Amino acid sequence: MQFKNFKLRTGFWKYIPLSRYAIFAGAIFFLFSGIGFITDLVSKGSLTDRGLFLSVVYSGLVAVLYAASFTKSIKLLPLAILFQFAAGMYASKGTSNMTPVEFLSRAAFDGYGTLISLIVGYVLLVIFITREGMKNFRYRTEMILAQDLHSNLVPIVDSKNGSFELYGVAKPTEEVGGDLIDFVDTHDGTVCYIADVSGHGVAAGAMMGMFKSAVRVLLDANNPLKSILTETTKTLYHLRKKDMFLTCAFLKFNSDRTVEFSTAGHLPILKLQDNSNSFEEMVIKQIPIAVTDSFDYKTELLGFEKGDLFILLTDGITETADKSEEEFGLESVKETILAHRNEALIDIYKHIDERVSRFGKQKDDQTILLIRCL
Is residue 27 a contact partner of residue 7, using CB atoms and an 8 Å limit? Predict the structure, then answer.
């Protein structure tokens, strides 16, 4: 955990431009260079003029090297230690014997030098904090806006009508996630789907938003499910960030009590019949969306009855690992659902979420959509 926190801190400093980092380094240099003047005072002016200059520079540079070690790269730490001892021995060479009168003059010089170095260092530090604080405030504001946008794109699904009861939650690892749940009532049925964009964060959230928009437009145009997957992969392939893709799983419930389904590189859709204790895994092995600009996706058709339960989820749940790197797995999801199958969907979700949270730390977006046929 401590190593992870160190990586997070260095990640902040990694993206600071050299020109702005130089202000920070200058602040550290001047704040600590005063130690050189203080050393001369403590030694009663025993340093020569050259030795005093080297002591001041040495004190500032040592502080800068240590600061760089813990902000830029820990690999600089051995260099900082080596410089501290090697340069320290060189800087301490040369002494002078001052009379009391001469020392009074030197003491005043050391005092002014210490004061000036502290003032300059403080001013530079305030400039750095102010600039970075304003930038981080702006970035944080933009992130909050992105988070609000994500919440609008992927709200909690909690719906019930005469035919279905639905409940689903997308739980991102960061402010903006790449998982998506959605359902749409069309003229000839109800479409429910889930998607998982590779990676997470703002880039994944942007691609997720484009996918939802494309799907909604195609559904409004009454495109068949097969065509929706084929057309979205054509569209997103040319808009996505390099090496990004998404997996998805679709269900289309028809009025004749049949359900059309398709999966694209995604986990199987789980189906639990009302009179059964075993799950049916609905999956079609096809490539994820936007891997290529052209792919002929297929769908299959099954029947469904009152009381049947359908579960769509992302691998952020199944791949959650414990301390021994054992994954939660799909079977654990099935066990939890079987144990609570007759409860309200929100309670089934809570049981799954609590068990996953106890099992291991969340490292990926965790999303699940539960559908009960009425």
Answer: no
Q: pTM for this one?
A: 0.66
Which residues face 259 on adjacent strands? Answer: 253, 302
- How many Cα neighbours within 13 Å face the side chain of 372? 18
Torsional class of 33: left (φ above 0), alpha (ψ -120 to 50), beta (otherwise)? alpha
Query: Which of these, 250, 253, 254, lies nearest to 263 by C-alpha position?
Result: 250
**Spatial separation of the C-alpha atoms in residues 243 and 262, rounded to whole Å:** 23
Burial class of residue 2, CB neighbours in 10 A (0-12, 13-18, 19+): exposed
Look up residue 196 and give its two tokens.
């998982």
The C-alpha atoms of residue 41 and residue 44 are separated, in whole angstroms, by: 5
Domains with residue ranges and CATH for the chain? 2-147 (no CATH), 155-373 (3.60.40.10)
pLDDT digits (tens, 9 = 90+) for 18-72: 888 899 999 999 999 988 888 888 887 778 888 888 888 988 999 999 998 888 8
pLDDT digits (tens, 9 = 90+) for 325-366: 999 999 999 999 999 999 999 999 999 999 999 999 998 899
Both tokens assigned to 305 = 């009855």
One-character DSSP codes across 146-183 = HHHHHHHHSPPEEEE-SSEEEEEEEE-SSSS-SEEEEE
